[in-house]
Structure formats: structure tokens, C-alpha cells
Amino acid sequence: MFSLSVPAVVALLSLTAPSALAALLQSADDAASQLSSTKYDYIIVGGGTAGGVLANRLSEDSSNKVLLIEAGSSDYNNTNIQVPWLAPVLTHSQFDWNYTTAPQEALNNRSIGYARGKVLGGSSSINYMIYTRGSEDDWNRYASLTGDDGWKWDNVLNYAKKLENFTNAPSVANASSKFVSTVHSTKGPVGAGLPQVTLPIDQLALNAQQELSSEFKFNQDLNAGDMTGMSWTPFAIAGGARSNSARDYVEPALSRDNLDVLVNTQVVKVLKTGTDGDTPVVNGVQFTSGPKEKLYNLTATKEVILSAGAIGTPQILLLSGIGPADQAKALSIESIVDLPDVGQNMQDHPLLTTNFEVSSNDTLDNLTLNTTFQAEQLALWTNNRTGDFTLGACNSWAWQRLADNDTVFKNVTDPSAGSKSPHYQLIWSDLYIAFSGGAFPQGHFLTLISNLYTPISRGSLTLNTTDPFTYPIINPGLLSDEAGFDIHTMREALKAGRRFLGAKAWKDWIVAEYGASANATTDEAIDEYIRANALVVNHVSGTVAMGKSGSTGKGSGALNPDLTVKGVKGLRVVDASIFPIIPAGHTMVPVYILAERAADLVKNPSSGSGSSGSGGSNSAAPIGTSFVAGIASAIVALAAYLL
Ligand SMILES: Cc1cc2nc3c(=O)[nH]c(=O)nc-3n(C[C@H](O)[C@H](O)[C@H](O)COP(=O)(O)OP(=O)(O)OC[C@H]3O[C@@H](n4cnc5c(N)ncnc54)[C@H](O)[C@@H]3O)c2cc1C
Ligand SMILES: *[C@@H]1O[C@H](CO)[C@@H](O)[C@H](O)[C@H]1NC(C)=O
Ligand SMILES: *[C@@H]1O[C@H](CO)[C@@H](O)[C@H](O)[C@H]1NC(C)=O
Ligand SMILES: *[C@@H]1O[C@H](CO)[C@@H](O)[C@H](O)[C@H]1NC(C)=O
Ligand SMILES: *[C@@H]1O[C@H](CO)[C@@H](O)[C@H](O)[C@H]1NC(C)=O
Ligand SMILES: *[C@@H]1O[C@H](CO)[C@@H](O)[C@H](O)[C@H]1NC(C)=O
Ligand SMILES: *[C@@H]1O[C@H](CO)[C@@H](O)[C@H](O)[C@H]1NC(C)=O
Ligand SMILES: *[C@@H]1O[C@H](CO)[C@@H](O)[C@H](O)[C@H]1NC(C)=O
Ligand SMILES: *[C@@H]1O[C@H](CO)[C@@H](O)[C@H](O)[C@H]1NC(C)=O
Ligand SMILES: *[C@@H]1O[C@H](CO)[C@@H](O)[C@H](O)[C@H]1NC(C)=O
Ligand SMILES: *[C@@H]1O[C@H](CO)[C@@H](O)[C@H](O)[C@H]1NC(C)=O
Ligand SMILES: *[C@@H]1O[C@H](CO)[C@@H](O)[C@H](O)[C@H]1NC(C)=O
Ligand SMILES: *[C@@H]1O[C@H](CO)[C@@H](O)[C@H](O)[C@H]1NC(C)=O
């Protein structure tokens, strides 16, 4: 139903884009002569979360001429992108690369859908908008792993503030008790805040936390350094609509005559243009409008910056001969530099849903079950940017650690960065969600989503062919660690979620666990359920990791701490590829943060450690689900409304 009905409806919904703005170039072929006659100081590859930040910050200096190249379209104003509640329909849409993982051995050999944004704004235009910075411990560990104090929490907090406009709609009840205003800013470009609509389960969850406070402590603001405990959920949603890097960083910079943005154009390689002493200089790019279309070469006078994301960036590097020399040789690619870490160290957060039947009729399942109600809510969004369509996946949640005396620590060293970093996440959503499919049971539900945030498992990305339009082999290696820490923690997360929902506070709300997980009561049965059903949170990271300066050997990192590529000149990587260890949180804000710092590192190379972002100017799963089935009908209604 989903795949049949949505594409047609999406086309109806696309707002008519205005004719191309001066700096927004829709086609490499049309713009070829303009591009080849311009000297660009910086060429940024990938107009996603990080690329948008760089395009804005580097073009703040009018002496820099900047080109941003994006494979997807410039349709970031599309209504499906703007309406927060419609986020699920963006997966498997024209804005998704539609990657698939290699068969995951520990998940019964299932290959699972792997979404990535393909549109200006990248994954920030298609994600679920959850807004977490990562913990103080995570960032301090990046500083110690790279030997660069500039990655410490105390320093990156300046960038976390620089990027955000954290404000609340007037309708947010008791807002001041729901976040700590001193760790936030209202002056940055990315709008964020707390959910505007109060749900009945919000109070029940608070009551449950108080009842079980020895296990579930309350955390007023998980973006203040300590991520653990139950808290309110912040989102990159402002004025009822999605924030993304296209709207917040690229659009405000489009009026500058020193920025050009070229969309619908895929970079296939970076090019060696010469040598500096013995060191290859790699400051050229090769790009095209599509398979079998004309190829263009262009050289940056200063740097090429790869921001194509944790799949696109290693793919481009491997295609260019920057990566493991043995892999290049096997595909007859001429090696520029042997960097064994490129494409290795892939990490993501495994996800699990379980459903609970509830006795109330007052849940967000209303939006699927009651078309009158749905139409009312859509009208509220369309007219006033209010109502249920401004919501994300949950209003509150908990981030928890395994007990210090958990027996698993007899087998493994704790992979978390420290006591302020959670091992797992518990989300309670006010409706039926089953990302992996199945028919909507036509009732009222609560969905528990329990996810692992400190995986030990590592995977890899490798090329299958030298054709840049053939997808690489993407293997996040989910739950594959030999010690079994990952499946153990997934199992403990589900048990903790059941304990939370088992609090007396829920007794008049929750009827019973529903569906296939309900019978999974023994450890063995839980593991079986996990292997048959786990998916992923879509936080792929770590495939071109930074390490200490110097060594290019295996395990020492492909990037220097300033994100320049080891062994070459003129090339940097700025996106989710760079994390040596995946943050124990959602990854969008960490990417915004690192991109803000990277912009300073590019502008002022000596700013290295201790540079501050404060005072800067602020110009700027395969979803065949019943959840989605509901959303798809919502879109039909929205389309009807707009027409
Ligand atoms: C469905 C989904 C839900 C998510 N939910 C959340 C969430 O709620 N909260 C959160 O914090 N994180 C979430 N994430 C993760 C988060 O969005 C990403 O980690 C983050 O946005 C990655 O930023 P990036 O700059 O590394 O890559 P991206 O934002 O993906 O940008 C890469 C860009 O490069 C372009 N590109 C790729 N290859 C090429 C090429 N060869 N030539 C030209 N352009 C190219 C792509 O089209 C894309 O625009 C989610 C992700 C997905 C997919
Ligand atoms: C997106 O919408 C904004 C605000 O309406 C407008 O200024 C901008 O030109 C639009 N951009 C595109 C690419 O359609
Ligand atoms: C992804 O898949 C959907 C559904 O099949 C399709 O409509 C869309 O065009 C695909 N995306 C891309 C970028 O090809
Ligand atoms: C911050 O957001 C608020 C509310 O959305 C808005 O009124 C204000 O103009 C924004 N400030 C900046 C600097 O963009
Ligand atoms: C582009 O660069 C490639 C690799 O250096 C080279 O083989 C090719 O001839 C160049 N094309 C043009 C048109 O200069
Ligand atoms: C829920 O709605 C159904 C059908 O309208 C009704 O029969 C039932 O009494 C309602 N239950 C509650 C708890 O309101
Ligand atoms: C569910 O629908 C009823 C009207 O039928 C409404 O009063 C209630 O607020 C809705 N609940 C939610 C969570 O949207
Ligand atoms: C459906 O929603 C409408 C509008 O909110 C409400 O009046 C009606 O009672 C709802 N129907 C049911 C069965 O809940
Ligand atoms: C929302 O918009 C409608 C139509 O413009 C208006 O009648 C209504 O009063 C608005 N509601 C709120 C809460 O602002
Ligand atoms: C861990 O400690 C708690 C309380 O301190 C205790 O109840 C529990 O049995 C211990 N667990 C193990 C596995 O030792
Ligand atoms: C620790 O390792 C032993 C031996 O491999 C295994 O039997 C046990 O289940 C492991 N404990 C945990 C908690 O994973
Ligand atoms: C590699 O590419 C070939 C030819 O395009 C294709 O048939 C095969 O399925 C691919 N293998 C993987 C693992 O993606
Ligand atoms: C759970 O087990 C009971 C007893 O074996 C069985 O009747 C029921 O169908 C099972 N439920 C599910 C959802 O598998």
C-alpha cells in the first residue's frame, strides 16, 4: 500500500520551486562554462548536514569563493520535509539514497534498509529531528583519542551554542523546568525546542520515573553534558516545522555572490593535481550529472572538503585510490596513498520495537483511525503550524547505563566513554510503530523502542565495482561482536523498558505487551526476537575516522585531528565519517558541532586546540509499516486539503 500510493502523492505535494536563484545551479551541463571559468578556493562535496554548515561559514569571508556540490535536488521546501510528523515517509522516497546493508549475520542474515538523505540538507532533511549533542564524556574521549583538546566538551560547547536557536513555542507547558537555559543559545541558525503538544502519557511517564527513581533518575537537560536519565525530548523543530541545514545554513548564504551551489550533480572522484615535495596534492574533483553523462574536472585553489556522509565520503575516497592499497589493487585503481582505515570502523546503533496495547482512546493512533480528527490536525498545521503534526517520535524518554556490577563487565571492558554516557536508550511512543512491517492492528497502543548506543561491533564499507553509480558493500556488522556485549545490552534494554512500563503508574493505561515479543520472556527467546526484528537508528559513523597526527598505519586513523586526510595535501573530511567511536546519542547535532569547529579550522589553521566558537556571527528501514500506512493516508488527506 505504502509503495503504491506515496510516490504519486508526493509529487502532488512538492511546492513549486521558484526559478533558480543566482547562485543555485541546477545542472552541471548547463553551468559548465561558468564553473570552469571560476576559481574556487574551496569545493565542498555533499550539501548535507555538515556541507551546509561549511558552505555558510566559509562564504562568510567574502574573500573566499566557495562551491558546494550536491547529488540530490534543491527541493528542501517540499511539504513532506517541512511537516515533522511526516518524517517516516521520507525514507524510501525520492529524497533517500535507498541503500541496503549486506546480510547481517547476527540478524539472521537479514539485509536491512539503510536510509541517507539525497537532497540539499542531506540526512538533516529526512531524519527524525531528535536533537542530542552527545555527552561530555564522549567529546572528552575524542580529545584524548586524537590528542587535540579542541575536541573537549568545554570547547565544543561553544559551537553547540553557536549553531542553535533553542526556543519554545508559547504552548510548551512548564518549559523552564524541561531544559537548562544556560547551556543553550537563542542566536544560532538551527531552530530547536521541546514538543509543543502535551500527551496524556507525558504525566504517566513522569509518575513512573518518580516511582522507580532509584533506577530512572530525572535529568532536566540531557544536552548539558550528562546524557543519562529520563528527560524531555528536544527536536530540531521550530515554529512547528523541520529545521535542516539547507534552510538554516545554505538558504541564508545564497544571496552571497561568493557562494555557488550546484545540485543534481554527483562527485565520482577526487583528483591528484600534483605533488608538494613527495606528498600528493589532491585538490581536484570529478563530477557528472549521472551515469554515462559527461564528466567534468575542477580544481580548488585551496582545498576540497568531503562532506558526502559516512557512506558517500569513503566511497569517493576508495574510488580515488585513497584507502587500503590492497583493495585498490584488486580493482585496478591506481593508489594515491595507502590508508588502511578508509571504509573500516563502521558503526551504528541497533534498534528494536515492541508494542503494548493500551486501554485509552486518547493516543496518536487517532491520526490513523479517525480521518475527521486527522483532517482537523492537518488544518492546524497548515494554518497555524500547531497540533499533532508538529510532533516527533516521543515527548519524553530515558537514557540508561547497565549496572556497574553487570556480569558482562567480567567479559568486556566498558565501551562507554564514562558515567555520563548511556549504554542504551528507551523511547515510549504514543502510537503503534512497526518499522519492519505488518498490518496496523486498528487499536490504541504504546510502542517501546529500545536501542543500543555503545556498540562494540564494527563493520566496513568496501567497493563492489569501480562504477561510482553502483552502491558500495555496506556492512555495519550489527550485533557481531564476539564477546556478545551488544546483544546482551539490547536484551537488558528491553528488560529495563518492560520494568519502566511495569510501574504502577501505567496500570490503568497499559493492558499488555502485544504481538510477537509478548511471549519472549526468557533470555533465549528475547535474543531470538532481537535477531529476527532488530533494525538500525540510521546513525552510520566512523568510516574515515580521525586519530592522532602522524602515523597512517592500520588503526591509527585516516584523518589528522584537524580533519585533513593523512598522507596528502589539499583534502579534508567533515561529516559523520570522522568519529573514531560513534557518539552515544543521535548524530545530527554532533555533526553540526564538528562542522562548525571544522569551519574555524579551515579559516584559521592555527586555531587548533582551544579555539572558541563563541562570538561568531550567526548569519545564517524499509518502512512498509502500519505507522506509515497511517501516514500515507494522512498525506492523501493533506494533498486533498492543499488542492
Ligand atoms: C531516517 C533517518 C533518521 C535519523 N534520525 C535522526 C534523528 O532523529 N536525530 C539525529 O541526530 N540524527 C538522526 N539521523 C542521523 C543524522 O541525520 C546523520 O547522522 C547526519 O545528518 C549525517 O550528517 P552528514 O553531514 O555526515 O551526512 P548527510 O547529512 O547525509 O549529508 C551527505 C550529503 O552528501 C550528498 N552526497 C553523497 N554522496 C555524494 C556524491 N558522491 N556527490 C555529491 N553529493 C553527495 C548526499 O546526497 C547528502 O546530501 C537519522 C538519519 C536518517 C537517515
Ligand atoms: C524555500 O522557501 C524559502 C521561503 O519561502 C524561499 O525563500 C526559498 O527561495 C525556497 N528555496 C527553494 C530552493 O525553493
Ligand atoms: C528510493 O525508492 C523510492 C521507492 O521505491 C523511489 O521512489 C525513489 O525514487 C528512490 N530514491 C532514489 C534517490 O532513487
Ligand atoms: C529564534 O527562534 C525564534 C522562535 O522561532 C524566532 O522568533 C527568532 O527570530 C529566532 N532567532 C534567530 C536569531 O533566528
Ligand atoms: C580529468 O581528470 C582525469 C584524471 O586526472 C584525466 O584522466 C582526464 O583526462 C581529465 N579530464 C579532462 C577533461 O581534463
Ligand atoms: C473507545 O472507543 C470505542 C469505540 O468508539 C468505545 O466503544 C470505547 O468505549 C472507548 N473506550 C474508552 C476507554 O473511551
Ligand atoms: C484523540 O482523538 C480525540 C478526539 O477523538 C481527541 O480528543 C484526543 O485529544 C486525541 N488524542 C491525541 C493524542 O491526539
Ligand atoms: C473523531 O474525531 C472527531 C474530531 O476530533 C471527534 O469529534 C470524534 O468524536 C472522533 N471519533 C471517534 C470515534 O473518536
Ligand atoms: C488556526 O487557524 C484557523 C484557520 O485560520 C483559525 O480559525 C484558528 O483559530 C487557528 N487556531 C489557533 C489555535 O490559532
Ligand atoms: C548488583 O548490585 C545490586 C545492588 O547493589 C544487587 O541487587 C544485584 O544482585 C547485583 N547483581 C549482580 C549480578 O551481582
Ligand atoms: C561471559 O562469557 C562467558 C564465557 O564465554 C559466557 O558464558 C557468559 O554468558 C558471558 N556473560 C555475559 C553476561 O555475556
Ligand atoms: C556486486 O555487483 C554485481 C554486479 O553489478 C552485483 O551483481 C552484485 O550483487 C554486487 N554484490 C554486492 C555484494 O553488492
Ligand atoms: C504466545 O504463546 C501462547 C501460548 O503458547 C500462544 O497461544 C500465543 O499465540 C503466543 N502469542 C504470540 C503473539 O505468539
TrEMBL record:
Signal peptide position in this chain?
1-22
**Gene Ontology molecular function: any one:** oxidoreductase activity, acting on CH-OH group of donors
Q: Which residues bind FAD?
A: V119, V267
Task: Kindly list the residue ranges recorded as spanning the membrane.
Answer: 620-642
Output the InterPro entries linked to this UniProt entry.
FAD/NAD-bd_sf, GMC_OxRdtase, GMC_OxRdtase_N, GMC_OxRtase_C
What residues sit in the active site?
H539 (proton donor), H586 (proton acceptor)
Residue span(s) of domain Glucose-methanol-choline oxidoreductase N-terminal:
117-140, 309-323
**Which protein family is named in the record?**
Belongs to the GMC oxidoreductase family.
Q: What is this protein called?
A: GMC oxidoreductase
According to its UniProt entry, this protein's organism is: Polyporus arcularius HHB13444
